[in-house]
Amino acid sequence: MNKNIKLSEHFTLGELCKTNHKTADGNIPSRVAIENLRNICENWLEALRQAQGPIVINSGYRSPEVNKLAGGSTKSNHLTGCAVDIRVTGFEQAIRYASILLDIADGTKRDFDELIIERNSAGRYWIHFAVRPKDNRRKTGFLK
Question: What is the DSSP string of 84-110?
């Protein structure tokens, strides 16, 4: 896999496939998953970056093996390259990013599948954001 492939002006395939989990499959996405990642980058993350400056992706595509090690759902949008987890510095920034993503959806009339503010047991926050090619549910929420 060429990690330097640009999915959009500011995002590379390597950024959207990075993982701390070492697996036999190498966490290599299919062509369809790459196109799904490209859609999120071009149509959503670039607009968020334009509004807020550089953003960091904690997780994007996950192979089934990586997803299992990460504790992800067997139906996770990460498995198809349709989801990203965006790093934030705290709850206030999470709300700000979520608001911008909602404004992008409303302004462009594009739908998303999930926009969820999440928090782990250590108190760290991130935004889980997913866009499917079709059948988006516009699901929003907060998980801890």
Answer: EEEE-SSHHHHHHHHHHHHHHHHHHT-
